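@channel sequence for tomorrow's demo:
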Amino acid sequence: MRPDDWHLTDDVDSFQARAGDFLHSRPALHTIPLTVTEALRTRGAHAYGAEAPVFGILERAGEVRATYFRTPPRRLNLTPLTPDESDTLAAHLAALGLPVPGVSADRDTAAAFAEAWQRHTGATPTLHEQQRLYRLGTLTPPEPHPAGRGRIAGEQDREQLMCWYEEFVADIGGTASAEAGSWADTRIAQERVTLWETPDGTPVSMAGMTPMVAGQIRVAPVYTPAHLRGRGYAGAATAEVSRAALAAGAAEVLLFADLANPTSNGLYQRIGYRPVTDFAVYNF
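structure tokens (generated this afternoon):
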């Protein structure tokens, strides 16, 4: 395989036209590129920041075999690659002089690309996070069930959502996908955040969901303020938003969990989520 089997574009419509069927063929495994490219298509090229996104397609004999994308300043995101494909991609990106601050992919692909990037550039990879992708089987409400109820977040919750979104991003050491006000406004308008509130009407946890793409919805983010954790609120909110995703017609409901957090992994499995595959995130 030659590095020039990889084709670069900065146009999301062109990328979707060439790679859409490939991405839709395995919607769970390709959930991140599906949801991110759809957001870029609907909200514009600068939906994730001032710099233009970059997309790549591995194509041989007219068939798409893999893709990548990057929304600066974030890490490179890859669909599954063989070690040889990882090596040619690293050579391709290094030759172009494109900055790659890290990589996120299924565990084997991420490790192979990190090694290849080190060979081609001398950069030292460090493992940042290991995640597990889950798919909902039979939804089972958590027991014991905390007192209170779930409800869709509305305009009156805007300041709360902004605050919690900023706290969530800080908690995970991530990069915000949008300014907090814009993030809250979009999700309120599209009814994509479920709050769990106590019997007196106080919100104590939130669970969001992505728009439906290729028949799948991903639950994200799930957040409970630190001083309210351990009371079952996150499980209740996650169950409620999962129910909403099913009601919206999703054939698959997915979520990611940090493998360093056994509490959340155990919780998601108790309410019906089953492992699909593991992912890894490296910084360079």
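heads up for whoever presents: The two ends are 25 Å apart (CA to CA).
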